[in-house]
Write a structure and sequence with these properties.
TATA-Binding Protein, 340 residues, six-stranded antiparallel sheet, single chain, Rossmann fold, 12 helices, thiosulfate-cyanide sulfurtransferase activity, eight-stranded mixed sheet, 14 strands, Thiazole biosynthesis adenylyltransferase ThiF, alpha/beta
């Protein structure tokens, strides 16, 4: 226990609480800015099993705020889940870490997130949070929502059966919500650590059964303009909520295709996700498309550059088309360079 001695000396945790942390299972969805800080905190705190899930790879623009990554990860075209695993394994070899390069959707969310004591939100989009919420409400798993954009941060602790759920706060389906993102409004690095650290504190309270100390508010603050607002979250429950009141988990319904084609807001990128799970031989793909343009590849992805566009192929069949936010243009490129 020497590694955790300073944490154990904190009375609300103590040796008993540390043992609970070491026996816990935590999942983190999204390993960008918030997720990379959350993963760092969870590994250093000594969680027993950590699953880290992300669909993207490390790019140079990430390095300003995504503290787990460095320039070698950019040069290596490493998926964030892989780069994070490499770094986290050096921090604490006692933690069992399962890294998953995948896009959370209605076909895989329950398999990836059920059976955990806690789920932490490191994502940057509403649809994924609605999916997380459906899984957690259905299986009674607490999860902690977090958001950071510009200089504005937000977080909430969601405990199924005890508090309002995410759909109580945001009833509108995600495709109708238009909000700022880091790619449209920017973000300052210190905000990331503040929001994720608040999430991590609440996570430690849950993992050590200090439920009475959980923050009952939805916190919203602007660190640049020194503003702070909070909403009494428990009183925000809606009696007609589709998820926590009616148990209608529509975002887990495999017959509903939510995200076969998605515009990644502010990134000038369209993502194509196959509706049927498939496994791509990236080595064969790299050979087959080598005559089409400049190809860079590793065992995780293949990147094809055809000026002014770049196509990024993943082994699970997902394809990112970078260089356009027009779905018609992306469809045409997908049909030409990917096929059926």
């Amino acid at each position: 226990m020497d590694r955790y001695s300073r944490q154990i000396l904190f009375p609300p945790i103590g040796r008993k609480g540390q043992q609970k942390i070491m026996n816990s299972r935590v999942a983190i969805v999204g390993l960008g800015a918030l997720g990379s800080v959350l993963a760092n905190h969870m590994v250093r705190a000594g969680v027993g099993f950590l699953r880290i899930i992300d669909r993207d790879f490390v790019e140079e623009s990430n390095l300003q705020r995504q503290m787990l990554y460095d320039e070698s990860d950019v040069r290596g075209l490493l998926p964030k889940a892989v780069a994070a695993f490499d770094k986290l394994s050096l921090i604490n070899s006692q933690v069992e870490i399962d890294h998953v390069v995948a896009d959370i959707n209605n076909t895989n969310a329950e398999e990836l997130l059920s059976g955990f004591n806690l789920v932490l939100d490191g994502t940057d989009n509403f649809l994924t949070r609605f999916i997380i919420n459906d899984v957690c409400v259905k299986h009674g798993i607490p999860w902690i929502y977090g958001g950071a954009v510009s200089s504005n941060g937000m977080y909430s602790v969601i405990r199924p059966g005890e508090t309002a759920c995410f759909r109580c706060l945001f009833e509108t389906p995600p495709e109708t919500i238009v909000g700022e993102t880091c790619d449209t409004a920017g973000v300052i690095g210190p905000l990331i650590h503040i929001v994720a650290s608040f999430q991590a504190v609440e996570a430690l309270k849950i993992l050590t059964d200090n439920m009475e100390q959980l923050n009952p508010f939805t916190e919203n603050f602007d660190i640049w303009f020194n503003e702070q607002r909070h909403l009494k979250f428990k009183n925000s429950k809606r009696p007609n909520c589709q998820a926590c009141a009616n148990h209608n988990f529509e975002f887990l319904d495999p017959s509903i295709t939510h995200e076969s084609i998605t515009s990644l807001c502010g990134r000038n990128t369209i993502q194509f996700t196959p509706t049927v799970s498939k496994q791509i031989d990236l080595t064969e793909l790299s050979r087959r498309i080598s005559h089409l343009g400049i190809v860079n590849s590793n065992k995780f992805l293949v990147r094809l550059h055809i000026n002014p566009y770049t196509l990024v192929y993943f082994s699970d069949g997902r394809v990112l088309i970078q260089g356009t936010d027009d779905i018609s243009t992306a469809r045409s490129l997908y049909s030409k360079y990917v096929g059926a």
